[in-house]
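Field reference: "sequence" (input) and "structure" (output). Example, Osmotically inducible lipoprotein OsmE:
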Amino acid sequence: MRRLIIGSCAAILLGGCSTLEGISTIMNFNDHAIPTKIYAGGATKQDMLAIQQPRRVIAARTGFLECLDYQLENKGKKQDFYVGITDAGRVGAYGFIGCELAIKEGYLDAGKASVR
């Protein structure tokens, strides 16, 4: 019983750190021009390129045409951010991780447009 309680407390604390990190990331980078444009809806590849050039463009080959790999900067902090572009030239997926991880984790798989 004691192990169960200690294990549960450890899991909550570890999960809390991850949650707090995610909240911190959103608070620091949510007002950056790229996420702001995406949140407004209807963003295109051209919109993204007009705001900032990505570090690199990776052919996704997983249902999305390509992935724009950004490093956002705000208030002296840096954060990876990916933008998945559909074959129609629209933003179909995005999140606060890099393209390589987004592709590896399946966030750019066909039929699974997602936000991470």
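Confidence is low (pLDDT under 50) at residues 1-17.
Residues 88 and 99 are 19 Å apart (CA to CA).
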